[in-house]
Amino acid sequence: MRIASCLCALSLTVSATAGIIGQPRFVQPTVAATPAGYIVNDLLVDFDGRIFGQQLLIELTQGSIYNTPDFGGNSPPNAAIFSLVPELASDSFVAMGGADAATSAPVLIVGGAVDLHDGPTRLVFDDERVSIAWAATPGLIIQDQLNFQIARLTLSDDAIGRVALYTSYCTAAMFPDRIALTVRGW
């Protein structure tokens, strides 16, 4: 179950009318200040209609999830700080469209991943486990996007574990469609 080398092995269940286009996917951007032994993975989605709440569960049995000591958080970092703390650009976080506070819509963290079974339902964001639920801030409408970043997961190159994603979208009928994604085969 090697995470870093096989994040592209996805199993996805989608309802027939879901707003998602294709499958959520991981890309590995080059981030210059990434600490040695870690790999940056951005989670992207394409969708029609509105995006609503997201839930993410990561549980590692080996390796670690990177966040900059004393500066890391669970939402996109402020790029103005990158010159002072360059490795902050490699932090793990959830997002609504971008890799930093200027390119992501504001993120509302609402708690843990309650709809993903077998994980903690309270908010957890540490070096072995993530259980988080988030959305765009109230009143913000995000529609019809391609290559829309919903998370950055920087994992050690020896990371082993599981990742599960629950995401909801809205079609023209204004009802959320739900998607369950589990990364397997690491």
Commentary on this structure:
- β6 and β7 form a beta hairpin.
- By secondary structure, the chain is mainly beta.
- The N terminus and C terminus are likely disordered.
- The protein has one domain.
- Strands 1, 2, 3, 4, 5, 6, 7, 8, 9 and 10 form a 10-stranded antiparallel beta sheet that branches.
- It is built from no helices and 10 strands.
- The termini are close together.
Briefly, what is this?
This protein has 186 residues and is an all-beta fold.
Give the topology:
Elements: E1 10-14, E2 25-27, E3 38-62, E4 93-94, E5 107-111, E6 124-125, E7 129-136, E8 143-156, E9 160-170, E10 176-183
Antiparallel strand pairs: 1-10, 2-3, 3-7, 3-8, 3-9, 4-8, 5-7, 6-7, 9-10
| Topology pattern, helix = H, strand = E | EEEEEEEEEE
Number of domains: 1
Query: Rg from C-alpha positions?
Result: 15 Å
Number of strands: 10
Ranges where pLDDT stays below 50 over 5 or more residues in a row are: 1-18, 172-186
Strand content: 35-45%
Q: What is the arithmetic mean of pLDDT?
A: 80
Number of helices: 0
The termini sit apart by: 3 Å
Keywords: Signal
